[in-house]
Amino acid sequence: MSEPPDDWAALLAFALTGEWLTLPAREDPVTPPDPGRFLAGLAEIGWTGKRLAQAAAEPRVLPVARVRVLGPARFAAVLGELRARVLSREGEVRRASARQLTSDEERLSAERPPHWG
Predict the structure, then answer these.
(1) Is 82 part of any domain?
(2) Of the four listed, 22, 29, 41, 57, which is most buried by Cβ atoms within 10 Å?
(3) pLDDT tens, 84-103?
(4) Does 29 fall in a domain?
């Protein structure tokens, strides 16, 4: 296997699919790709629907040195947005429960530290 590139699109594609894909060249590989265009590009090469959702749900070990070049927090944010879009399209996004709090939970949520007045 050749060395993976320090490219947003290539690393994001690997994180979502588990494969080092050959994607169309971008003018600016240093900035994150537009999520809609990025997912459309994956769709053009066959990564759509359930196939992409199943692959995106799997954790991946990413090359730390490559992610560090792009900025780990920024990379995680962009990847999180892409995963949320992919999984929500397939109806697999889990939402917070809308249940009522119990009386004990209400009491705990109302408590404030003494310095809050």
Answers:
(1) yes
(2) 41
(3) 989 887 654 444 456 788 89
(4) yes
